[in-house]
Queue: 3 jobs
Job 1
Amino acid sequence: MTYYKILVNKDTRIEELYYENIVKPSLVPVETFKNNDMLYNIFHVEDKTTYLEKTTANKFNLLRNYAKGNNVILGITSGFLTFEQQMFKYEYFVRKRGKEFAEKSACFPGYSEHNTGLALDCDIFKNNKWGGIALDSEGNINSETAWLHTVLHKFGFILRYPKGKENITKMKFEPWHIRYVGEDVSKFIYEKRITLEEYCKLESNI
C-alpha cells in the first residue's frame, strides 16, 4: 500500500489534506506498557493517550509478543504527534539542548514521521527499569537492541535512522525510532542495508 511507503523527512512535508483526511482517521489508541506522563506533559498530550495507525499498532503488538517470547520486553515511548505537539517537542529540545541538537533530534511540524501515525519510539525493559534501548556512554547499543533490529523487518518495520546514514536521513542515529512500511518494503530495505530515502529514490527510477 502506497500509504505505508510515504516519505516524510526534513525535506519532505506531509500534505495538510493528507494529514487531516488520511492520517487522523486511521489512528487508534495503543497500550504503551510504560508510564509516559512526563513526555505527555512536555508534548502537551492532554488525554495522556498514545495513538498509532491501525495496522502499525497491530503489527507492533505482534512484534512485542514475539520479542517477549525471546525475553525482550518492549514498550512505547512516543507514537503519533499532532503538528502542535511536534512543535512543543522541537521547542523543548531547543530549550534544553540547543538548536543544533534539536535539528538533529527532532523536526518541525509536518516534517516529522510522528505526524504520520506510522512511526514510534520504542523502549526495552532491562535491569528492572525502562530505558534499556538507550545508547551507552560510548554510543553503543546492547545485545537486546541489536537483536531487535534484526527482526523488525519480519513485522513490516524498519530502523528509520540507522548508524552511518546520518548524511542521508539528516537525523542522528536513533536505535529506538522504528517505522512501519509493510513486510515487502521492510525486507528489501533490511537486506539491502538502505534507508527509506534510498528506497524511494530507487523506486522512482524504476
Job 2
Amino acid sequence: MTNEPKPISRRQRWGSKRRYSVLLSSELADRFERVARLRHGAKSALVEEALDRRLNPEKYPLLDEALLRRLDEQSGSLATLIRDTAINTEMISLFVRYFLTITPPLQDHEQKPARILGKQRFEVFVAQIGRRLASDRGLVMDVLESIANHRPDLFATATDDMTEKPLAAKEGQGAAVVNIKPNGQDTGPATTGKQHG
C-alpha cells in the first residue's frame, strides 16, 4: 500500500494570508516592478508593508514626529514673517503720512536740483539696504533692541499721530505759523497779522 502525498490546500499554503487581485496604472506598475527587483522579487512583502504603513500609522512614529517637528519649525518661521511684514507695513505707512504732511511743494526752479539730490540719496539708500541684507543683523532688530534696553516704556508713551498745532498767539499778535524748509527743517515761528497798538 503506497502512501500518496495529499494535495496542499490554498489555506495551508498561504497560512492566514489572503489573496487579492489589483489593477495598477502603467507608471505605478513599472515603479512597483523596479522596487520589487531591488527587494529580490518580494512583491507581496512590499505591498503588505505599504498597506501596513498606510493603515497603521501609529506603528511608525518616527515619520510622524519628524513631520510634526518640521511643521512646528515652519509655523514659527511663518509667524516671524507675519510679524515682520506687519512692522514694515506700519512703518512705511506712518513714514509716508508724516512725509506728505510736513513736506511743502517745491518751486519750479527748485525741482530739478531736488530730483538730482533725491537720486543721489536713493543710491546711498539702496547701498545701505544691500549691506544690511548681506549682514546677519537687520536695522529693525537693532532699533527694537536699542529701545528695549534704553527706553522700554517708549511704546506705551509714544503718540500715534504727530500732528502740529498752531503756536499760541500772544496778546495783540496774530496766530503763529511754523515755517518749514523743503528738507523738512523748522525755521522757527513767524507771526501773522498786525499788532494792535
Job 3
Amino acid sequence: MNIPVMKQAWLISFVLATTVCAAQDRTCRDIKFPGHVQVNGNDLTLNGLGVRKATFLKVNVYVGALYVVQPLHDPKPLIESDTPQQLVLHFVRNVGVEDLRKGFIEGFDRSSPGQSAALAARIAKLNTWMPDMAKGQQLTFVRLPHAGVQVLVNGVPRGTIEGDDFSRALMSIWLGAAPPNPELKSGLLGGECD
C-alpha cells in the first residue's frame, strides 16, 4: 500500500473528526445547547458554556452559551468583534426582575467604568424589557454589528438597543476584566463549564 496515500487519508479523517466534534451539541448542568445556531443568515459556533454563580454560597443562577463566527479563547477580539454573536442565558433558578435590573446596572458599572453616562439611557431601556425569569427560561442577546443588540426573552423579541459601544460594553460584562464570576468567563471562552 502507498504510504503517502495512507497519511493523506489519516489527515483527512482527523480533520473531519475534529470538525464534527467541534460542531456537536454540548451539555452543562443538564442543559443541552446546539453546537451551531443561525443568526441573520450567519452560522455561529458554540464558543463555550459557563455558569453564573451568585453570593458567597456559589448558588447557580444561569448557564450562559456564547456563539460566535470564529471560536476564540481570547476575550479581547470577541469583545471588539464586528461579526454577529449570540449570548444565551438559560436560567436554572427563578430570578426576580429587580435582581436582574440591579445585576445589569452593576455589570455595566464594573465592565465599562466611565461610560455610565453615555450608556445610561440604553441600560434603562434594557431594564424596562426585563421580566421576572423563571427556571428554564432564556434571555438572549444577539449582537448585530453596526446595528446594536437585539434582546429576546424566551424567544420573543423585545427590541434592539443601538450602538456598537453598547454592544461592546454588554459583552464586557461577561468577557471583560471583572466578570460576575471567573468560572463563567472561563467557560464562555471554551474552558470547563462548572
